[in-house]
Amino acid sequence: MTAPVLNASNVVKSLGGTPIIGGLTLLAEQGEFISVVGPSGCGKTTLLTCLSGLRSVDAGEISFEGQKLDGPPDGMALIFQDYSRSLLPWRRNVDNVLFGMRRMTGASAQEKREKAMEMLAAVGLSKFETHFPWQVSGGMQQRVAIARALAARPHLLLLDEPLAAVDAQTRADIQDLLLSLARQFQKTCLLVTHDVDEAIYMADRVIVLSNRPTRVIADLAVPLPKPRDQISTRAEPEFLRLREKVLTLIRSMRTAA
Fold first, then answer.
1. Angle between the 109-122 and 138-151 helix axes, to the nearest 10 degrees?
2. What is the separation, in whole angstroms, between the first and last Cα of the chain?
3. Which of 18, 186, 208, 216 has the most CB atoms around it within 10 Å of its CB?
């Protein structure tokens, strides 16, 4: 039996003596798109930094592709909310993508550059390869960050509210872009978001977290047709049912806080 891409078992984490994660367990299988939501301040970003290996856990275990996690592994990429700070402003867009490939082996410099240009084309930026990040819009900067993450050929893509700082139309466009790229490149994705509608629209499963110390209180399948559509999918009765359920769970956590 194939091991899950990501397996977090009974994870516990405190920061500065404050319990943040309290015995949390979750699995991500190959090719799944999972969204994680929960009350504000419940520890979603802390969880993501633990899952990525950027932070160690106090108890429990996290494994990636069957191997215990001990620091950030090859085969995993993280896309941050603040795209403007995650890109290097003195490097052109294509060079920012190449920077994400610096640990790749077995490819020549020319092959890496061709791959970087291919990824920029995949996110619709083939005409902006030689621009600097500060010369393009916020939405384009986030596309560069996505291209950089994908160019490293990760098996797992972790996304920390990557669309929180862009306008509504750009958000919808990049949501569809991410779904298309995840399908095209067969990536496993785990998205942390405050936006319940986004969580449902993007995911195969929505995981709902409790207040701190956070744990999983619901793991909901999203049986909506694919490919998703911004208008028809959001009008589906099942979408509306899931939206009501997730919002009710989150509001119950606020009441209990």
1. 130
2. 41
3. 208
Mean pLDDT, residues 158-175: 89
Q: What is the rounded distance in angstroms from the CA atom of residue 186 to the CA atom of residue 183?
A: 5
Beta strand extents in the chain (DSSP E only): 6-15, 18-28, 33-37, 59-64, 67-68, 76-79, 156-160, 188-192, 205-209, 216-221
> Tens digit of pLDDT for each residue in 36-46?
999 999 999 99
Residue 7 Cα distances to 26, 61, 156, 175, 210, angstroms: 6, 8, 12, 25, 19
Cα distances (angstroms) measured from residue 169 to each of 164, 166, 182, 234, 250: 12, 8, 20, 15, 26
Secondary structure of residue 166 in the 3-state scheme: coil
* Residue 217 neighbours by CB under 8 Å, 6+ apart: 208, 209, 210, 249, 253
Six-digit token string for 166: 């862009």
**49-86 pLDDT, tens per residue?**
999 999 999 999 999 999 999 999 989 999 888 777 88
CA distance 6 to 218: 18
60 Cβ contact list (under 8 Å, min separation 6): 8, 9, 10, 11, 12, 23, 24, 25
Structure tokens at 135: 């010369």
**Alpha-carbon span 148 to 185, nearest angstrom:** 14
In which element (H, E) is residue 175 found?
Answer: helix 168-184
Query: With contact defined as beta carbons under 8 Å apart, do 88 and 26 qualify?
Result: no
Laid out side by side, the sheet with 6-15 consists of: 18-28, 6-15, 59-64, 67-68
